[in-house]
Amino acid sequence: MLEKLYEFVENTLPPMRYKHTLGVVEVAKKLALEHNISETKAETAALLHDISKCMTISEMHNYIECDETLKYFGNLGELLHGFAGSVYAKQKLDVFDEDILNAIKYHTVGRRGMTTLEKIIYIADAIEPGRNYPSVDEIRKKATTSINHAIIFEVDRKLKYLLKIEAIIHPNTIEMRNCILEELKNLKS
Ligand SMILES: [Fe+2]
Ligand SMILES: [Fe+2]
Question: What is the DSSP string of 13-47?
């Protein structure tokens, strides 16, 4: 099953996107092992997380399930490809595991109450070896000890940037941040 998926993804994505995907697979498998969750699930979700990234916006809309929050983000492929990808994976690639599908779906915007697998795909996408931006090494370092701390650091950096360019911010991202901060506080108390 996985072998066929690799072949399909390699034939579907442009070489650079496939290289990025393999980087996400590498990090996701390592984190899955460290956090005692299924490596196969992490590998499958990582392999498919950007499967819809190179679709046109109208193609993406063919696969997006109606979601109230998405109506404000109809043209943002950067956000939509996760939502489209999860439906595509289910309809076309026979992936039925809800945890895998949600990890694909929410890797762009996050959400409240993410599973460990969802968090792993979210952060692996941001820190795979091909990523190169200021502070990526700090996020990589945090991810070795705490995925929650790594996500908070990454999302704060992202939010500062989005505020600076006056971008619309998807509410899920704020919800993800709030929820993870609550999880971290509960650990302390
Ligand atoms: Fe993506
Ligand atoms: Fe990605």
Answer: S-HHHHHHHHHHHHHHHHHHHHTTS-HHHHHHHHH
